[in-house]
Structures are given as C-alpha cells and as structure tokens.
Amino acid sequence: TVFLLLFWLPAQAAAPVLLVWGDSLSAAYGIPVESGWVALLQDKMRAQGFPHKVVNGSVSGETTAGGLRRLPAALDRNQPDLVLIELGGNDGLRGLPLKRMRDNLAEMVRLSREAGAEVLVFQMMIPPNYGPQYADEFSASFRRVAEAEGADFVPFFLRDIAADESNFLPDGIHPNERAQPLLLERVWPVVESRLARQDRS
Fold this sequence. Notes:
The protein has 201 residues and is α/β, with parallel strands linked by helices. It contains seven helices and five strands. Helix content is 47%, strand content 11%. The chain has a five-stranded parallel β-sheet, with helices on both faces. Helix 2 (37-47) crosses helix 7, helix 3 runs parallel beside helix 5 (98-114) and helix 5 (98-114) runs parallel beside helix 6. The relative contact order is 0.15.
C-alpha cells in the first residue's frame, strides 16, 4: 500500500535554474567563492522568496569563443530558465576581432533561447589601449547583440566600482570582496524584473 501511495504521488518539481556564464569577474577570482556576487545573488534570491538554484559556470580567463564551446553541454546538463552572459572582457583585453565576439555572444543567446531560457547580456568596457574606435565599438557591441537577439541588457557591469581603485585587488583588474555587493546591486534590478515577468507568464 505504501508503495502504491508513493507511486501515485506527483514528483516534486525541480527548482528553476539561473545559470551565470562569465569569466573571472563572476568566478570570484582572488576572493572566497562565498563572497562573490554570484553567491550573494543566491542568498538574495532565497531571501526574496525566489526558488531558483544559481549555477555558476564562470571560468577565469574565459573568452566568448570558450564560453560558446562550453555552453551547449551546460545547457543540456542544467536546463536553465535564465542565463546571465558576462563574457567579452577578455576578448577586448586581448584585442580580438569584435565581429567574432558579437557573433559568439549572439550564438550564446540563441542557444540559450532555443534551450528554453531567457537571457541577460552584460555590457563591458575597456581602456583605449587599442585606440578609442576599438574601445567605443567594443562597449557598443553588447547592447547591439542584446537588442538584435531580444535579450535583456545590464549596462556596464563595473560602472559603480570602476572609478575607485579601493574596490579592486592589487592587480587593479579584479573586484575585491568589498566590491561584490555593489556588483550584485548592479545586476539585481534586471534579474528581478526578468524573474517577475517569468512568474507572470
């Protein structure tokens, strides 16, 4: 009888998944993982009553090409409802072709959408090491991809910390522990808005 009852009980629905797909900025480089903005995002979502499980697929040093290669397996494995793409900074720092970066970002958005997930694209900016034209086109690429592919857009991810060197590790590139809550604050309004829209639908 117990077996029959268990057999007829509906299976418990798996928690929806939010997949963060980024580089060292999201991989908590140089700080405790639990202090990174992605871990703080999981804490905030639980506090706000969202049932989502946050999966961090970020890899330090990752480019958009590397992210694109890894993404199909991660989508299949995690079945995410929402994908946050925080990639492109390493492409820009290495002076890689911007059309290729945009194509990679666009393909990641398309693959995520085809897998049933909504997508957020994070904007990055770089110093004008390769000239102002490259830097301007680089920063414009992210909104361009988001608008073309119908993804949500997070304006310059580091905007709230970039002007204060005390927010960074000694390398001057990677945000320190103190800066992580500010990164979360930058992302949260867009994430919350998207989650609210998913709930309504």
